[in-house]
Amino acid sequence: MRVIFAGTPAVAVPSLDALVKAGFDIVAVLTRPDAPVGRKRVLTPSPVAARAAELGIHVIHATRVDDAVTAQIAAAKPDVAAIVAYGGLIPRAALDVPPHGWINLHFSLLPAWRGAAPVQRAVIAGDDVTGAVTFLLEEGLDTGPVFGTLTEGVGPNDTAGALLERLSHSGAVLLSQTLSAVEAGKAAPQPQAGDVSLAPKLTIEDGRLDWKQPALAVGRRARGVTPEPGAWTTLDGQRVKIEPVRLRPDSSHLEPGAVSLEGKSVLVGTGSHAVELTRIQPAGKKMMAAADWARGMASLESVVFE
User: Fold this and answer.
1) Cα–Cα distance between 108 and 143 in angstroms, integer?
2) Per the CB 3.0–4.6 Å rule, which of 6, 47, 133, 144 could disulfide with 30?
3) Does residue 283 contact residue 294 with C-beta atoms inside 8 Å?
């Protein structure tokens, strides 16, 4: 079966590899254009583009799927398109090109967390279980009928990055199985059922920690925005980056945002009990162990995160 693969970030690479390993004929890869990376802003191919180049697969670079891109897709004569985190909408004209449509691997249990940041939103919300589905792409936001589902537990220390990494590999197997079922004429997608929730793309502001919230909510947010866009707070008007924190229910004497060095632990007060900082990056400095940062401060008595 001839397959167009659409994807951009590293989490889409396992799916591309799985389809190649399964013997599908990947006739082209659709991905976002090269983007500036690092402090020097060096133009760099997307992880999917880089992997496609290694595999010798033709790459179509596109910020959006316009008429010209749709013509390139049609010229490849795909039987089906597989899409994993491409990062752009697929218009009706392009959806109609492959006879078997576009099959999307999405990292949530639809209709929960429709949108660009399903794993991150699930962690922030405190979901105990998440997963991935394959579904038939429609013009609506993640509304199409579902082919297959897998579930994945959310651990108490899972960051969004760690959870997404696991789902990228298990989801790749699910996508390959779904395309095999489509090829064999045995696929039977079912309408989505259940409560709908939305997962819009995270902004930098989503990473700001509100110390007046309970410790559990602070911890979930810090894990949910790691690695991107990253958790942060402010100190003396400057942004300070924070890596995921540990819950410290044994300490409840600190006011929200107040910082204290107790033994080797750096504690911060919240709306309930304290949390323990692990690593911190003050403005203009490198990420460091929280205890090292605290020992370098003249005094912590007046330090209050905002």
Assistant:
1) 12
2) 6
3) no
| C-beta of residue 59 within 8 angstroms of C-beta of residue 43 | no
Q: What share of the chain is helix, strand, coil (3-state, %, to 5)?
A: 30, 30, 45
Cα gap 65→70, rounded to integer Å: 6
Half-sphere exposure of 28 (CA within 13 A, CB side): 20
Closest residue by Cα to residue 243 from 189, 274, 280, 272: 280
DSSP 303: -
Alpha-carbon span 51 to 95, nearest angstrom? 24
Three-state secondary structure call for residue 152 = strand
The string of pLDDT tens digits covering residues 160-212 is 999 999 999 999 999 999 999 999 999 999 999 999 999 999 999 999 999 99
Phi/psi at 176 (5° precision): -60, -40
And the tokens for 68?
Answer: 């010209």
Supply the angle between the helices 215-224 and 118-125 in degrees, to the nearest 10.
170
Query: What is the rounded CA–CA span in Å between residue 245 and residue 223?
Result: 8
> What's 143's DSSP letter?
-
Say what the alpha-carbon torsion angle 30, 32, 33, 34 is, to the nearest 10 degrees.
Answer: -110
For 158, other C-beta atoms within 10 Å of its C-beta total 21
CB–CB of 248/275 below 8 Å? yes
Query: H helices then E strands: how many in the chain?
Result: 8, 17
Q: How would you list the strands of the sheet with 259-262, edge to edge?
A: 246-248, 274-276, 265-268, 259-262
Please say whether the beta carbons of 88 and 62 come within 8 A. Answer: yes
Q: Which residue has the tokens 């991905």?
A: 31
Pairing of strands 80-84, 2-7: parallel
Kind of pairing between the strands at 25-31 and 59-61: parallel
In angstroms, the CA 92 to CA 73 distance is 13
